[in-house]
Design brief:
- This protein is an alpha+beta fold.
- Helices cover 36% and strands 20% of the residues.
- The strands form four sheets. The chain has a seven-stranded antiparallel β-sheet, with helices on both faces. It has a five-stranded antiparallel β-sheet with strand order 5-6-10-8-9.
- The longest helix is centred in the last third of the chain and has 20 residues.
- Bound molecules: flavin-adenine dinucleotide.
- Flavin-adenine dinucleotide (FAD) binds next to strand 3, helix 5 and strand 10.
Length: 468
Amino acid sequence: MLARAQPSVSGGLPPALAAALEGLLGRRFTTSAADREHHGRGESYHAGLAPDAVCYAGTTEEVAAIVQLCAVHRTPIVPFGAGTSLEGHVTAVRGGVCIDLSRMNAVLSVRPEDLDATVQAGVTRQQLNSDLRDLGLFFPIDPGGESTIGGMAATRASGTNAVRYGTMRENVVSLTAVTAEGEIIRTTRRARKSSAGYDLTRLLIGSEGTLAIITEVTVRLYGIPEAISAAVCSFPSVSNAVDLVVAVIQSGIPVARVELLDNTTVRAVNLYSKLALNEAPTLFFEFHGSQAGVCEQAETVEVLAADFGALGFVAAADADSRNRLWKARHDTHYAVQALRPNAKLWSTDVCVPISALAPCIAQTQADIADASFPISMVGHVGDGNFHLGLLIDPSDPRELAEAAAINDRLVRRALELDGTCTGEHGVGSGKIKFMRLEHGPAVEMMRKVKQALDPLGILNPGKVLPED
Ligand SMILES: Cc1cc2nc3c(=O)[nH]c(=O)nc-3n(C[C@H](O)[C@H](O)[C@H](O)COP(=O)(O)OP(=O)(O)OC[C@H]3O[C@@H](n4cnc5c(N)ncnc54)[C@H](O)[C@@H]3O)c2cc1C
């Protein structure tokens, strides 16, 4: 049973608010324990805190009406997509109302001629891509979970394709959002470029539900490449693998994906996904382009890999083996979790400039070697981004303290190298303590933005910004 969220007033929501929300939504307003508990925790190791009620919104106008009612009662609001976030983003630290947008899941329009699509916030990337397949188009951003496009915009998510296609920051054209006053706005139009005014789209991307609630997202689309090929390549050490990646990126080879898995992760993947990869630090590559272009990229990387001591370079050109490989990569979270079944996976990520990746990973490996519990390392290394999965017993205070210290050292190391405390997972409540260290006085500017856009402080309070 989760800890009970602090109620907005004694005993939960103000009765007048509960009655008004029930009047608006009928059975899509609920205070059932199961619904509240589900919505009070993401996939993170953080303890959950349940909201007082959950509202399943169906339209932008309904979201606006819910926000207006909550604003009258000064009741906190936590937007919720699929709950796959990893840093305590959706915990209702002040109780209040969770607005679940997952039922707003219509693909509103696809415009192949403009290479864009507009979707409701609750559409998942998998759903969008299955709708697009027959048009020969795809949306490239692929965080591991079945996350919603609204949640992905709210966390500025990325994934394995970011090295070639960018992150949500580069791939959102425009947003429809509900402000803290319950007003509906569109951040910009669909033109690919605009110099007209402040960039509200980028302001809301990564704001984690603290500035507005995103209800529709217009995203960029890409043509499915004429040819795709993948390759797997193992190395005697993580540093050999990382040095190769740095060389590949610095030589401008347009790899679509390059992912690092350390020994622990490869062992986990072999067991979980029934693969037979060499249990050594391994890179998964994918190349997109014309038939000739893809062959040329793969050959160039293979030659470079030999210079960095590669133990083999195995191509996976057919779609089935490629899909199997990438499915295994996307399942690494669960594969690693299965290595210590009663443990909880504390997943943390940092990102550094590509030239700083090798020292950052080398120093981190020393921490991994000394840890008293298993730690896996995976990385979207082409972006300088890597993740640790710390498999801890959350009921053991010694393991929790050791994990916190490892996470702390990891973040400080990344910041010393001019990197960031999170490349893609976001701040939530878990990384708030690093915001001042990373941003210094710029945190005050962020605070002013928050104060201006959410003067009552009702939108996902206790997230992103330190309160002291
Ligand atoms: C196995 C696994 C692998 C992952 N791999 C990656 C990865 O490779 N890359 C990556 O970037 N992330 C990754 N993640 C993290 C997670 O999938 C992303 O953060 C994702 O973008 C969250 O989307 P969601 O719909 O689940 O959002 P939620 O978890 O529901 O919400 C996330 C945050 O956004 C806010 N929010 C949600 N919807 C809206 C909205 N419509 N308007 C305003 N605010 C909103 C919430 O209040 C919360 O603060 C992974 C997670 C798991 C479990």
